[in-house]
């Protein structure tokens, strides 16, 4: 499912226009991204938690030349799935 399909489903389920559904989805994504970028953990109970995680510097290898290279430390976005979400995915049909 892509974003346009998600907008269609949300608009239909919420009984609203596609334009309104897209606005809400866009604002939700912008808010989550902005908060996580500023180091705030965003928890949606039952769905999951978005957070910034620190990745340590490490040594890697160039696959073409097999030479070692330094990979710098950086922050990455992380998501931990919530219990309800995990249970729904693992539910047997």
TrEMBL record:
<protein>
    <submittedName>
        <fullName>HU family DNA-binding protein</fullName>
    </submittedName>
</protein>
<dbReference type="InterPro" id="IPR010992">
    <property type="entry name" value="IHF-like_DNA-bd_dom_sf"/>
</dbReference>
<dbReference type="GO" id="GO:0003677">
    <property type="term" value="F:DNA binding"/>
</dbReference>
<keyword id="KW-0238">DNA-binding</keyword>
<dbReference type="GO" id="GO:0005829">
    <property type="term" value="C:cytosol"/>
</dbReference>
<dbReference type="GO" id="GO:0030527">
    <property type="term" value="F:structural constituent of chromatin"/>
</dbReference>
<dbReference type="Pfam" id="PF00216">
    <property type="entry name" value="Bac_DNA_binding"/>
</dbReference>
<dbReference type="GO" id="GO:0030261">
    <property type="term" value="P:chromosome condensation"/>
</dbReference>
<dbReference type="InterPro" id="IPR020816">
    <property type="entry name" value="Histone-like_DNA-bd_CS"/>
</dbReference>
<dbReference type="InterPro" id="IPR000119">
    <property type="entry name" value="Hist_DNA-bd"/>
</dbReference>
<keyword id="KW-0226">DNA condensation</keyword>
<comment type="similarity">
    <text>Belongs to the bacterial histone-like protein family.</text>
</comment>
